[in-house]
Amino acid sequence: MKALSSLKKIVFSVGFLLVSSSAFANFFSHRFVELKANVPVNVSNNVFALNDFLQKEIILDLPEITGAMPKKGFDVSIQALPEISLTVDIPRGLIVGVDVGVQVFSNLDISKDLFEFLSTGHDFTKEEEFRTSINGYADVFAFARVDLGWNLGKKISFVFQPTLFSSLLHASANKAYVSFKNTNTGTFAYDIDASFNLYSPFELKSDVFSDPNYLISQAMDGAGFDIGGTVNIDLFKYLSLNGSIRFPLVASHLDVYTPYSIKSQLSVDLDTILEDSMESPNMEPVMGDAVVADYKINRPMKFFVGGNFHPWGNFMSFYGGFGVGYKHPGAELKEERGAYTDYLAGVKISLFNMISLYGSTERTDEIFIHKASLALNLRLIEVDAGVAYESASLQKSFSGSGLGAFATVCIGF
Question: Residue 20: what pLDDT?
């Protein structure tokens, strides 16, 4: 009888714990009103790893670096997305919110030919000529989004996301180059032409930036529009599916074109180099006169489908998905357009949705990212923070050739 009584107590305690944990988890998993601020920053390259610079003596072996370098060459990327949002989410009812922020995308590619040239040495006694290309772009977008949706019972929710956005800057370096030439008479010459095309809604002058009203007015005059949306479906108690889409409708217009260049040329005799009497080359940036332009640009087009598998309730869940994107849809230059794939796979371990640990691997906007994060949720306030290893190269992304970090603060009830 005592054993039976003890068994009943154990079963009752386990049942009570499961019910109470579920209640606690539901209480901490949803806010009716939420104000959120999010600041992610990512910097990466596809050649150098963090460990390469955490040594007593830093040694850069050019032949080894060149041999391991991808065919496309040296790639550097910087991305950031600071944003703030306010959302009202009523169970079995209305979803409405606003989200404003700034998106920064930048990428620079240096041809592998340059590293092969430098790593094999240079023979000044032979007639030789070499030229390499430098390609890159940078985009800065400001955006304001409205979220309008509905919770259809407990199973389905959808959100429609019309977005007004404005391109604040588009820079491209599609024709930049570095060239070297020497003759068998002992003359060496190089030519650097790092020319950038800068497009903006206003002139890039210091006095212009002192008038914020003018800046806002010019940015709004050239604003574009895209639409997006999300949907979430709970198929079973332990499985849910989700999807998202963003599609451009009206491109943002940039009315001002400004040429910007960094040029340098030098031709010297070999004797001058050996005697160490060569003059320092002149390399000064030059910004040309602004002219009227009509450059059209959109934010990347995106489509993503995913799922969340949680066989043990809120304690542990597995999430992931696959998507496609298209960079600069409608861009005039073919080199600036291009499709790419995204994916995501991760796991979440949570205690009552109060303390949660996340680990994931993903490819987003052509960058491989391996992320770990921690979330502390006290219902009225939640703080999330995480770090990531990343790179445009899958192999280098595991060695820390790029680092990312983010911090999110949510306030609401």
Answer: 47
**H helix count then E strand count, the chain:** 6, 20
The pLDDT of residue 161 is 98
Gap between the Cα atoms of 79 and 42, Å rounded: 5
Angstrom distance (rounded) from CA 151 to CA 87? 14
Question: What single DSSP character describes residue 331?
Answer: -
Pairing assessment for the beta strands 355-364 and 338-351 based on DSSP bridges: antiparallel
Residue with tokens 């574009």: 224
- Tens of pLDDT along 234-255? 998 899 999 999 999 999 999 9
Query: Rounded distance, CA 219 to CA 211, Å?
Result: 13
The predicted model gives 218-231 an average pLDDT of 95
CA angle 201, 204, 205 (to 5 degrees): 135
Place of tokens 């940036």: 285
Q: Are 111 and 174 in contact (CB under 8 A)?
A: no
- Rounded CA-CA distance 159/88 in Å is 12
Q: What percent of the chain has pLDDT over 70?
A: 84
Q: Calculate the dihedral angle through the C-alpha atoms of 172, 175, 176, 177, rounding to the nearest 10 degrees.
A: 160
In 173-300, the DSSP E strands lie at: 176-182, 187-200, 224-236, 239-250, 252-269, 284-287, 291-297
pLDDT at position 383 is 95
**167: which DSSP letter?**
E
Task: Kindly report the pTM of this predicted structure.
Answer: 0.83
Q: In this structure, what token pair is assigned to residue 394?
A: 């899958």
Looking at residue 210, the DSSP 8-state letter turns out to be G
* Residues forming a β-bridge with 306: 242, 321
What is the distance between the alpha carbons of residues 191 and 180, in angstroms, rounded to a whole number?
7
**Residue 341: C-alpha distances to residues 18, 66, 175, 285, 392 (Å):** 40, 27, 27, 37, 13
Dihedral Cα 358, 361, 363, 367, nearest 10 deg = 90
Rounded to an integer, what distance in angstroms lies between the CA atom of residue 410 and that of residue 372?
19
**Which pLDDT does position 29 carry in this prediction?**
63
Q: Is the pLDDT of residue 36 over 90?
A: yes
